[in-house]
Write a structure and sequence with these properties.
mainly beta, 7-stranded mixed beta sheet
């Protein structure tokens, strides 16, 4: 947090003899240029192109930047660290590189102008709260043959304008509150051949527009309060009978939902 909330910072300059860091156009990088450590968030530019030397976008690198609307990330980047773009409230467009493997915790939290994202098939990790509070987010697309196996807690919580999402077949666990309070979410589709086994607590809590959902046959656990407040919901299941390991509260028996089976 060395440069936290310095909203008037327009340049970071490094002595040429420093053995650990260097400055490129007033932004801070590792000496070899492979890590972007800090963007000077007081700059007035609305767009920025990350250099091709960069493989890691560092923790909180762009946090709180109010001006940037477009950021171009090169294919050299494989990791976006924790809170890298947190509260970049005017960021409208982001295109992830084809070699990206990790999107860190809170990395795009409260990017309230972000409208659409495509997650490359190369991504194996999306951290908790990664896109929480992205209120303008309408489209989330996972590329085919996704390597993702786990969606961590509150990843898309409070994304008020998200209407539809398709979960890749390789995902086994969806964590706590992943879609909590996504009030416009109508359709959740699990890709054919889904390997899903675990649906966390609060996952669809207050998704009041959710119309129907089909639980994959392999699901053995659905946590407490997972459908609380889903007043328009019909639940279907690919399995022959309701999983016996479901938690008792706010699932089927105590929620205004209908239970049915896929024929």
């Amino acid at each position: 947090n060395a440069f936290d909330k310095l909203e008037k910072l327009t340049s970071i300059n490094v002595d040429a003899n420093n053995q650990h860091y260097k400055s490129i156009n007033g932004n801070l990088y590792s000496k070899d240029g492979t890590k972007l450590i800090k963007y000077a968030i007081g700059k007035m530019d609305t767009s920025f192109v990350i250099p091709n030397s960069v493989t890691i976008i560092g923790e909180r690198a762009f946090e709180g930047c109010k001006m940037l609307e477009n950021i171009e990330i090169p294919n050299s980047v494989i990791s976006i660290e924790k809170a890298s773009f947190l509260e970049c409230e005017n960021l409208k467009n982001i295109e992830f590189p084809s070699n990206l493997s990790s999107i860190g915790d809170e990395s795009f939290g409260d990017c309230t102008s972000l409208t659409s994202i495509t997650i490359p098939s190369s991504v194996t990790n999306i951290g908790k709260l990664a896109f929480v509070g992205c209120m303008s987010l309408v489209n989330v697309i996972f590329e085919e043959n996704s390597k993702l196996t786990n969606i961590q807690k509150h990843t898309f919580a409070y994304c008020d304008n998200l209407t539809k999402i398709e979960i890749p077949r390789g995902v086994k666990i969806i964590g706590e509150g992943v879609f909590k309070s996504c009030s416009s979410l109508k359709k959740v589709i699990f890709e054919e051949g889904s390997n899903l086994t675990n649906i966390g607590i609060y996952i669809f809590e207050f998704c009041e527009s959710l119309e129907n959902i089909t639980i994959p046959a392999g699901v053995t656990y659905i946590g407490n309060y997972s459908f609380k407040g889903c007043t328009a919901l019909t639940i279907y299941c690919e399995a022959k009978e309701k999983p016996t390991s479901w938690e008792p509260q706010w699932n089927i028996d105590n929620c205004p939902v209908v239970w049915g089976y896929i024929k």
